[in-house]
Design a protein that fits this description.
Number of helices: 5
Number of strands: 4
Shape: extended
Helix content: 25-40%
Order of helices and strands: HEHHEHEHE
Largest sheet: 2 strands, parallel
Distance between the termini: 36 Å
Radius of gyration: 18 Å
Structural class: alpha/beta
Strand content: 15-25%
Oligomer: single chain
Number of domains: 2
Length: 101
């Protein structure tokens, strides 16, 4: 989603977060954001901080990640699946890749 797409449906005085996005993605929407009084926040996500605690919760059964996994493929299928994910085709949300059997 571009910055313009985020700014357009937003109401006035809203915070718009863009984790793991570079500012240049949002910069084109600066005028739209200014006109609506939006606060734009960007930055990298802190995956390192959450990986171990989340994995522990998954292993205990507290969290079921399968609800967001839409595709399972082998590593041989990775290039094609990357295009599917990038182009937002086939309702692709999260892909799990495994070595070929």
């Amino acid at each position: 989603m571009t910055g313009n797409e985020q700014a357009t449906p937003s109401t006035r005085d809203t915070n718009v977060g863009n984790p793991d996005r570079w500012l240049s993605v949002v910069a084109g929407s600066a005028l739209a954001a200014y006109a609506k009084g939006l606060t734009l926040k960007t930055g990298q996500t802190h995956v390192q901080n959450y990986t171990r605690p989340l994995l522990a919760k998954i292993l205990r059964g507290d969290i079921d990640p399968s609800v967001i996994i839409t595709h399972r493929v082998t590593l041989d299928e990775a290039p094609e699946m990357y295009r599917t994910f990038r182009d937002k085709e086939d309702d692709c949300v999260k892909v799990v890749m495994r070595p070929a059997a």
